[in-house]
Design a protein that fits this description.
Layout (H helix, E strand, L loop, with lengths): L9 E5 L3 H10 L4 E5 L2 H11 L3 E4 L11 H13 L23
Parallel strand pairs: 1-2, 1-3
Helix pairs in contact: 2-3
Length: about 100
């Protein structure tokens, strides 16, 4: 990270897994990182911090095996940040073994 004295952009990470929270904080060291582990804390931080970027885990409690809670938070984010000019949805699956096909 280069220290130019300029303010760093704010990043909100919405992730319930503490290990992934830590890894994402390391990965985004050029940002002023805030972390939320659930819907309520995500919305509170979104209002208080007005981040430039949000990363959102769609599989959050109470529906960690589905996407219902994640999409509920995404809807709230879009409503709170109505002036957003760009939105880049990114989907990611858990780490799965690579499969090779003999052919």
């Amino acid at each position: 990270m280069s220290d130019t004295g300029a303010p760093r952009p704010k990043l909100l990470i919405v992730e319930d897994d503490p290990g992934l929270q830590t890894q994402l904080k390391w990965a985004y060291e050029d940002y002023e990182v805030r972390v939320a582990g659930d819907h309520d804390s995500a919305i509170d931080l979104l209002r208080a911090e007005e981040p430039s970027v949000v990363t959102l885990d769609l599989g959050l409690p109470p529906d960690p095996d589905g996407t219902r809670e994640g999409f509920r938070i995404l809807q709230a984010i879009l409503e709170l940040m109505a002036a957003v000019e760009e939105c880049l949805p990114v989907a990611s699956a858990g780490l799965a073994p690579l499969r090779t096909h003999a052919g």
